[in-house]
Specification:
- The complex is a heterodimer of chains A (563) and B (160).
- Chain A has 563 residues and is α/β, with parallel strands linked by helices.
- In chain A, the strands form 4 sheets. Chain A has a 6-stranded parallel sheet, sandwiched between helices. In chain A, strands 11-10-9-12-13-14 form a 6-stranded parallel sheet, sandwiched between helices.
- In chain A, helix 1 runs parallel beside helix 7, helix 3 crosses helix 18 and helix 9 crosses helix 14.
- In chain B, 28% of the residues lie in helices and 42% in strands.
- In chain B, strands 5, 6, 7, 8 and 9 form a 5-stranded antiparallel sheet that branches. Chain B has a 4-stranded antiparallel sheet with strand order 2-3-1-4, covered by helices on one side.
- In chain B, 22% of the residues are buried.
- Chain B is built from 4 helices and 9 strands.
- Chain B has 2 domains: 74 residues, ACT domain (Alpha-Beta Plaits), CATH 3.30.70; 75 residues, Alpha-Beta Plaits (2-Layer Sandwich).
- Classes of the chains: A alpha/beta (563), B alpha+beta (160).
- The interface between A and B is medium-sized, with 18 and 21 residues.
Chain lengths: 563, 160
């Protein structure tokens, strides 16, 4: 069949199961947009390429499928960079299609030319510069295969314009992907599993430390089985939120810098740490030398390079977290009566003594934590929560009790401000049946506010809750605690009227200053079905996120939350 | 400790950048790097000499394996291997020292490959120790220019 490169591209995407692309047109991708004109693929027109890549990323996080975005060459492609780095840090499978100038112009500083394969080299799992029309099928197949297998990650494919224009005779070859230097991880070291089982059965004070890898491998059920059958408390990382129900009696909530006191104390006391799909990030471990000082460590991860990267482990198991947990579960003997009683009692005592708590506002304003609690109350853990980055993100993680995997969509590793709104767009497109709420700060929301236009165009009833303290709150918190209260350039009280802004876009705007109105405003927003809603909550200006482990400190040395 | 890694990679554009970028980004130090085609034109071999303790070398190896275009890595540091490096040394050589230089060249079984009015270019191959030694021996005469290829290596004996 005679087809243009761009048509072959779209057919190959459909053969990979792609039904939605987030994108923004431009000169170098005109052939692709022309082919999209009468294609079955749904194209979501964003307002900035960064919005496209974050939306594709969230689409992937919510569905577990590969997210796809499309941009033009040059500035279109460079606008994707932050989003690609975001996906890379959080191991999210996306394929980014970038336009490129014609092959004969590459390297001549042509109009809108940028070396995007060079630029994205250190922030992609792999990338391609397409060399000829005949390669399209193989490159697309490889790209999706690499993006979704083993430790997932972003793949960029740079598409020169002439290669997309050229007509060739093409029928799908449907060849198996076979890459010499890339093999999908199968199996694991069974001997290590047996050792792990022995350690678990003999441990007096075990803790499970679960991360994003549990969600990526859809291993929540196996995790729950392990925890429940052996009565092992579970703490999750920011990326692991939702992998284990936060309201479960064995849940310790989040650990680390803004973790719960009881999670951090449990890490300090445990004699066995079962680390599943985690990478011992500095925000989790604090001072690495004093992290889990009394524990033997079992580390399960699909990425061999994660083993021993930051800490020495006793039992490394390289493999799919779900497969390994299943193998462990199948070998574990039932727990003896009362075996963990003492340990669980200690943890209960910590939970009673040091619950997450917050004070009242000296200014009589709404406490931000209260808003998150209300959101939880009204949605019962059945919503998808996206966040921006900073205090809003930490309060969301602390006070929303996540019930299901793939419902907490946040930029964990890179910490990308401006992620939440485009992520909410991607999440809502992926799951129109679910309530989607972006928990935002007044700083972050202004970084990709233009995506409100996308949400209005596609009639997406997402709810944007701005916790408005007129500060870059997390930076202000650090300035308050560690820089003598010198609030250098963190006061952002000059800001748009977010209600008018919402209305200008054709969205609904609500302002809430009174704590009594919080619930009603949320209920009103939940009723809206055909457009986004911004709720501008005026919150306590100086509320801090507590507890807090000062940077580089030991986990048991926390500020706040002990009152 | 210095390790020698023999790395086979896809012979594709950009693969050298991928490898060197990884070393730079993760803060590992390359002492020398030699690249060339193998008996299979689709595959290149990189011989990378890298400084680091066992833990660092383990990380380097694991991170390299994550590059899609890296096919196989062998740490040949402890192996019985033939290791060779080639050096070209342009040394000051007026008439009254030439005989001395020729003697050194003979001792190291090196070769004179160019004769200028006041200089000689000497070519030597050998393991890194020998190359260091000839360099040291010629230094007193005045080295004008020197270029080393970096080490290439091959494990001795049976199939590898």
């Amino acid at each position: 069949m005679k087809l243009r490169g761009a048509e072959i591209l779209l057919q190959c995407l459909q053969r990979e199961g792609v039904d939605t692309i987030f994108g923004y047109p431009g000169g170098a991708v005109l052939p692709i947009y022309d082919a999209l004109y009468n294609s079955n693929i749904r194209h979501i027109l964003v307002r900035h390429e960064q919005g496209a890549v974050h939306a594709a990323d969230a689409y992937a996080r919510v569905t577990g499928k590969v997210g796809v975005c499309l941009s033009t060459s040059g500035p279109g492609a460079t606008n994707l960079v932050t989003g690609i780095a975001t996906a890379n840090m959080d191991s999210i499978p996306i394929v980014c299609l970038t336009g490129q100038v014609g092959s004969s112009l590459i390297g001549r500083d042509a109009f809108q030319e940028a070396d995007i394969t060079g630029i994205t080299l250190p922030i992609t799992k792999h990338n391609y510069l397409l060399e000829k029309t005949e390669d399209i099928e193989q490159v697309i197949r490889e790209a999706f295969y690499i993006a979704r297998t083993n430790r997932p990650g972003p793949v960029v494919i740079d598409l020169p314009k002439d290669i997309m224009e050229r007509v060739i005779d093409w029928t799908p070859a449907d060849q198996e992907v076979n890459i010499r230097g890339y093999r999908v991880m199968k199996g694991f070291n069974y001997g290590q599993v047996i050792t792990a089982v022995e350690l678990i059965q003999n441990a007096r004070k075990p803790v499970i430390y679960a991360g994003g890898g549990v969600i990526a491998s859809n291993a929540s059920e196996e995790l729950r089985k392990l925890a429940e059958s052996q009565k092992i408390p579970v703490t999750t990382t920011l990326m692991g939120m939702g992998s284990f129900p936060a309201a479960h009696y064995l849940s310790l909530g989040m650990l680390g810098m803004h973790g719960t006191r009881y999670a951090n104390y449990a890490i300090g006391e445990c004699d066995l740490l079962i680390a599943a799909g985690v990478r011992f990030d500095d925000r989790v471990t604090g001072k690495i030398e004093t992290f889990a000082p009394h524990a033997k460590v079992i580390h399960i991860d699909i990425d061999a390079a994660e083993i021993g990267k930051n800490v020495a482990v006793d039992i490394p198991i390289v493999g799919d977290v779900g497969d390994v947990l299943q193998a462990i579960n199948s070998r574990l003997a039932p727990l003896e009566e009362n075996q963990r009683q003492e340990w669980l009692a200690t943890i209960e005592r910590w939970k009673d003594e040091y619950p997450l708590r917050y004070g009242t506002s000296a200014e009589g304003r709404i406490m931000p934590q209260h808003i998150i609690e209300k959101i939880y109350e009204l949605t019962q853990g059945e919503a998808i929560i996206t966040t921006e980055v900073g205090q809003n993100q930490m309060w969301a993680a602390q006070y929303y009790k996540f019930k299901h995997p793939r419902t907490f969509i946040t930029s964990g590793g890179l910490g990308t401000m401006g992620f939440g709104l485009p992520a909410a767009v991607g999440a809502k497109i992926a799951r129109p049946d679910m309530t989607v709420i972006d928990i935002a700060g007044d700083g972050s929301i202004q970084m990709n506010i233009q995506e409100l236009g996308t949400a209005v165009q596609y009639k997406l009833p997402i709810i944007i809750c701005i916790l408005n303290n007129q500060y870059l709150g997390m930076v202000r918190q650090w300035q308050s605690l560690f820089y003598g209260g010198r609030y250098s350039h963190t006061d952002i009280s000059v800001q748009p009227d977010f209600v008018k802004l919402a209305e200008a876009y054709g969205a609904v705007g609500i302002r809430v200053k009174d704590v009594q109105e919080v619930e009603n405003a949320l209920k009103t927003a939940l009723q809206v079905t055909d457009r986004p809603v911004i709720i501008d909550f005026w919150v306590d200006r100086e509320a801090n996120v507590y507890p807090m482990v000062p940077p580089g400190g030991s986990l048991d040395n926390m500020l706040g939350g002990d009152c | 400790m210095t390790h020698t890694l023999s790395v086979t990679v896809e012979n594709k554009p950009g693969v050298l950048t991928r490898v060197t970028t990884l070393f730079r980004r993760r803060g590992y130090n390359i002492e020398s790097l030699a690249v060339g085609e193998t008996e299979n034109p689709g595959i290149s071999r990189m011989t990378i000499v890298v400084e680091g303790d066992d833990r660092i070398i383990e990380q380097v190896t694991k991170q390299l394996y994550k590059l899609v275009e890296v096919i196989k890595i062998v740490d040949i540091t402890g192996e019985r291997a033939v290791e060779r490096e080639l050096v070209l040394i342009k040394v000051k050589a007026d008439a009254n020292v030439r005989a001395d230089i020729v003697q050194i060249v003979d001792i190291f079984r090196a070769r004179i490959v160019d004769i200028g009015r006041n200089s000689l270019i000497i070519e030597a191959t050998g393991d890194s120790g020998k190359i260091d030694a000839i360099e040291d021996s010629l230094k007193p005469f005045g080295i004008i220019e020197l270029v080393r290829t970096g080490k290439v290596a091959m494990v001795r004996g049976g199939a590898k």
